[in-house]
């Protein structure tokens, strides 16, 4: 059968209605209660004109309303659009317009004010749902544009049940991720493929995917009442995948507004948390600091696993976690917005990241021919099976990232490099493109270089990732300045970049050189730039 995310959630809610589904900031909702809130949200969205196929941007931090908006939208066959609330106005304008969002759900006053300044340049937005009080700036801007403002609190006046149209496995879920030009790309997942790949077919701890909704219901009833704490923001793919995965299992999701390591550690004891999801060392380092400080005063006996995805998770941080609790199962997930859950890394004695053999992953050459095991050749790691349809409104990048092999098989090739050992194990060698991963956020060299080149004193610049103990990598800029230009400072460069880029994209390291080295063809020499940044 074809799976739909709303059908799956409703099936689980019917199977385990009295089990706690969501703990948000110490408030508990059972599956029956969360289903009711999601229905109220769906009914409000529909009553306000949101319909099948409409894209709705979620300009939200973690909240109950964020969860019910996601569920409510898929219930009415609309498409949630995740929005990174750290983006600058220029980046937000791009995502609102590129995604063709017809509506926006927004909460924080500062986010409302930013949205108010963008409404004039986002003509497709016709409705804004406001969580909490509406600021005057948004009221004025909406009135000028004829945009309807809807109080999200009106959900309380909507019925807790719904007569929704039949859904399909072909319904879309669009997940925005960073792009090679610096702007995000909308990854288009069929919901059936979404269920089978990112959600592991509803069975992440087993080998056989669920075959139908009856199996989903039966498995949820049998699954232990475990608590999974998602420390990452729902705007990120890793958190979103985890949210749906744990709901599919009938588990309890523990969600906090922001990542606060002290509150996470306290939640382990209070909520009897069994699994924590983090994003690499950016969360892992402050978390283990807090675990070490509180190990003699907080009961962590319930915790048996910490899982990471989306960023570098160093051996040193893992070892410190194991020193606090030696029986922890540590799982380093490998995946992406464009591929879903690909499995878990292991680390060998040489520090190499290794993936066990999988029928859904191969290594190919530049012609997308599969490299034989044990050849020693380095190629591109490719995912096969349930892959996305492509990038929203970008046929060129779709063709490049999701090519079709000569035998008709579609694959996902993201630039991850690797080789295949004789036993089929894939050794991960790194990202071929110049993508900097700082605490789970993607920063692409080209976009920062473009911002640097706009500085009046900078003649040339290259941007690379430099190692960082907590964030995995930090952005480093190697620049040459024009003759007679005033002395350049890191603070000045950061201030300049933050005019057009999110704060986390601004360089943390500045190296000034006489000349930026390039190849004879004028291409960037990133190896040289990396050596300069680390010297």
UniProtKB/TrEMBL annotation:
<feature type="domain" description="AMP-binding enzyme C-terminal">
    <location>
        <begin position="447"/>
        <end position="523"/>
    </location>
</feature>
<dbReference type="InterPro" id="IPR020845">
    <property type="entry name" value="AMP-binding_CS"/>
</dbReference>
<dbReference type="InterPro" id="IPR045851">
    <property type="entry name" value="AMP-bd_C_sf"/>
</dbReference>
<dbReference type="InterPro" id="IPR025110">
    <property type="entry name" value="AMP-bd_C"/>
</dbReference>
<dbReference type="Pfam" id="PF00501">
    <property type="entry name" value="AMP-binding"/>
</dbReference>
<protein>
    <submittedName>
        <fullName>AMP-binding protein</fullName>
    </submittedName>
</protein>
<dbReference type="InterPro" id="IPR000873">
    <property type="entry name" value="AMP-dep_synth/lig_dom"/>
</dbReference>
<feature type="domain" description="AMP-dependent synthetase/ligase">
    <location>
        <begin position="9"/>
        <end position="381"/>
    </location>
</feature>
<dbReference type="InterPro" id="IPR050237">
    <property type="entry name" value="ATP-dep_AMP-bd_enzyme"/>
</dbReference>
<dbReference type="Pfam" id="PF13193">
    <property type="entry name" value="AMP-binding_C"/>
</dbReference>
<dbReference type="InterPro" id="IPR042099">
    <property type="entry name" value="ANL_N_sf"/>
</dbReference>
């Amino acid at each position: 059968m074809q799976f739909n995310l709303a059908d799956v959630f409703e099936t689980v809610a019917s199977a385990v209605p009295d089990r706690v589904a969501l703990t948000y900031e110490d408030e508990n909702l059972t599956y029956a209660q969360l289903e009711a809130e999601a229905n109220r949200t769906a009914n409000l969205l529909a009553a306000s004109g949101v319909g099948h196929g409409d894209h709705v941007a979620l300009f939200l931090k973690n909240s109950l309303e964020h969860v019910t908006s996601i569920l409510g939208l898929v219930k009415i066959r609309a498409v949630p659009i995740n929005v990174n609330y750290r983006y600058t106005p220029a980046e937000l304008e791009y995502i609102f317009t590129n995604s063709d969002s017809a509506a926006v759900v927004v909460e924080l006053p500062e986010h409302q004010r930013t949205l108010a300044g963008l409404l004039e340049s986002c003509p497709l937005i016709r409705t804004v749902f406001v969580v909490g009080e509406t600021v005057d700036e948004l009221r004025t801007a909406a009135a000028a544009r004829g945009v309807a403002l809807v109080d999200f609190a009106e959900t309380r006046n909507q019925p807790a049940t719904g007569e929704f149209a039949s859904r399909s496995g072909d319904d879309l879920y669009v997940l925005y991720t960073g792009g090679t030009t610096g702007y995000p790309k909308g990854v288009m997942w069929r919901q059936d493929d979404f269920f089978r790949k990112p959600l592991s077919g509803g069975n992440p701890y087993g080998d056989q995917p669920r075959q139908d909704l009856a199996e989903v219901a039966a498995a949820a009833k049998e699954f232990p009442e475990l608590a999974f704490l998602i420390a990452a923001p729902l705007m990120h793919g890793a958190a979103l995948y985890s949210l749906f995965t744990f709901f599919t299992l009938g588990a309890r999701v523990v969600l906090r507004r922001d990542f606060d390591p002290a509150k996470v550690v306290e939640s382990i004891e209070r909520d009897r948390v069994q699994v924590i999801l983090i994003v690499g060392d950016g969360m892992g380092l402050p978390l283990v600091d807090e675990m070490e400080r509180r190990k003699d005063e907080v009961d962590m006996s319930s915790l048996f696993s910490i899982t990471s995805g989306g960023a570098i998770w160093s051996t040193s941080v893992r070892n410190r976690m194991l020193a606090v609790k030696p029986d922890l199962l540590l799982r380093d997930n490998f995946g992406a917005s464009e591929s879903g859950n690909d499995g878990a890394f292991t680390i060998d004695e040489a520090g190499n990241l290794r993936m066990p053999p999988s029928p859904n992953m191969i290594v190919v050459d530049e012609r997308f021919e599969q490299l034989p095991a044990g050849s020693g050749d380095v190629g591109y790691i490719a995912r096969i099976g349930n892959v996305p349809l492509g990038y929203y409104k970008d046929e060129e990048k779709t063709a490049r990232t999701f090519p079709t092999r000569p035998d008709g098989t579609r694959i996902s090739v993201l630039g991850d490099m690797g080789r295949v050992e004789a036993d089929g194990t894939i050794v991960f060698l790194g990202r071929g493109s110049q993508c900097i991963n700082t605490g789970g956020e993607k920063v692409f060299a080209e976009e920062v270089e473009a911002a640097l080149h706009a500085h009046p004193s900078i003649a040339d610049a290259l941007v690379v990732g430099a190692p960082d103990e907590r964030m995995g990598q930090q952005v480093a800029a190697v620049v040459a300045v024009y003759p007679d230009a005033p002395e350049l400072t890191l603070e000045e460069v950061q201030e300049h970049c933050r005019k057009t880029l999110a704060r986390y994209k601004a360089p943390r390291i500045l190296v000034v050189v006489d000349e930026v080295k390039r190849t004879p063809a004028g291409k960037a020499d990133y190896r040289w730039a990396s050596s300069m940044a680390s010297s």
